[in-house]
Design goal:
This protein is mainly beta and 71 residues long. A three-stranded antiparallel beta sheet has the order 1-4-5, with no helix packed on it. The protein has a three-stranded mixed beta sheet with strand order 2-6-3, with no helix packed on it. Strand 4 and strand 5 form a beta hairpin. It is rod-shaped and about 65 Å long. The mean pLDDT is 95.
């Protein structure tokens, strides 16, 4: 049994807010989005050199994503 970690990105969401001061059909980005980061920890079991079991043990959020805001 070994412990393996994988790093990945967390996608940001786009939030749309109505802004009546802008002309119809015009949008403006009021906040840029930024991806977050996470690490997944897995327990892997091998038998005769082949992976026979992989179980997610823990998820660690390293950095939360920042939503993109469009008005």
């Amino acid at each position: 049994q070994i412990t393996v970690s994988e790093h990945s990105k967390i996608a940001y969401k786009t939030k749309v807010k109505n802004d009546d001061s802008l002309p119809k059909g015009v949008t403006k980005v009021t906040q840029e989005g930024k991806e977050g980061r996470k690490t997944m920890i897995y327990e892997e079991v091998y038998h005769d050199g082949k992976l026979v079991s992989r179980v997610a043990d823990k998820e660690i959020i390293r950095e939360e994503p920042v939503n993109k805001v469009v008005t």
